[in-house]
Amino acid sequence: MADTHPIFCTIVPPHVLDKLARAGDPAVSERARRTLEADSAQRTRRRLTAVAGPAAVTSPAGGPSDAPDRPDRTVHDCRNGTRLPGVKVRGEGDEPGGDATVNRVYAGLGATFELLLTSYGRSSLDGLGLPLTASVHYGRDYGNAFWNGEQMVFGDGDGEIFLDFSLPVDVIAHELAHGLTQYTANLEYYGQSGALNESVSDVVGSLVKQYTLGQNADRADWLIGEGLLAPGVTGVALRSMKNPGSAYDDDVLGKDPQPGSMDDYVVTGRDNGGVHINSGIPNRAFFLLATQLGGRAWERPGQIWFDTLTGGELAPDADFADFARLTAAAASARYGDGEESEAVLKAWAQVGVPTG
């Protein structure tokens, strides 16, 4: 089993926070700068830990038959500090308390665990029942949520640009899915492999949201972070898988920069080579696949993506074409050369990614 290299991944991209840090309103810019500083400190700590500590190891696609079939969740409260994990406030099986943020995160961890287990036979992120740890109320007016290679962390937002980061269940699942990728394909967090890493998290986030709502693909909104933006912001979410580039267009927040096809691929050195930007391309490919097949997106489309992620052939530095080719192979291997394979090929063709 190969070594993995835990990384620091946030739901709000650095380029968005950079834009907010230059806002004319000093209160907005100051909070954005504090969030950027906190992220930078965590990113540095993650690199040092990765160098000093032993690496994790990947696990089988599903895990052994005796792996736990129930989650092991712990939620901590940072009490607006930045020391992790904070004070334990809810453990597995504990009754809900009076903190709605704690209860939402606990439920979101459970929903993600349930989807992985019931749909794909995987016990937690590593296939072996890995305990799920989260911390809430991180920092003061902290405008982000992240996976640091070991746990999930959620800020309360500032109330003016971002609301509580526990509000959208897809944000919770998105961050957990970075752990799933860490324990499987271990995609490098730069360029196209990094964009695939982000896209897989968006896919899983959307699937968990649809699963909890009992929605078919044609009824889902395919938005990531819907409900996260404060009422004064002109936008509906952080990202749109259906129509990348349309999630927000705000004087303060800026314009959603995501492309929906390779024709508009963004070449940049920022954001680790555009990992949050160009992820719109594989995001839209998954949306197209799911809506072409119809029904529940976590079933056939989700299974194809899961098989690709856990199949052992996806290299850490894979590009879009590598991933597309392997999804086509995964569809053929599981479903034969029928409508699933045709839909995969058509979806990637529509976003300009070759599968040959």
Q: Can you tell me about this structure?
A:
This protein is α+β, with helices and mostly antiparallel strands and 356 residues long. Helices cover 42% and strands 9% of the residues. It is built from ten helices and ten strands. It has helices at 14-21, 26-52, 100-120, 169-182, 191-213, 271-274, 280-293, 300-310, 320-335, 339-350, and strands at 9-10, 73-77, 87-91, 132-136, 145-147, 152-154, 223-224, 239-240, 249-250, 254-255. The strands form three sheets. Strands 1-5-6-4-2-3 form a six-stranded mixed beta sheet, covered by helices on one side. A two-stranded antiparallel sheet has the order 7-8. Helix 1 runs antiparallel to helix 2, helix 3 packs across helix 4 and helix 8 (300-310) packs across helix 9. It is globular and about 55 Å long. The relative contact order is 0.12. Residues 49-58 have low confidence and may be disordered.
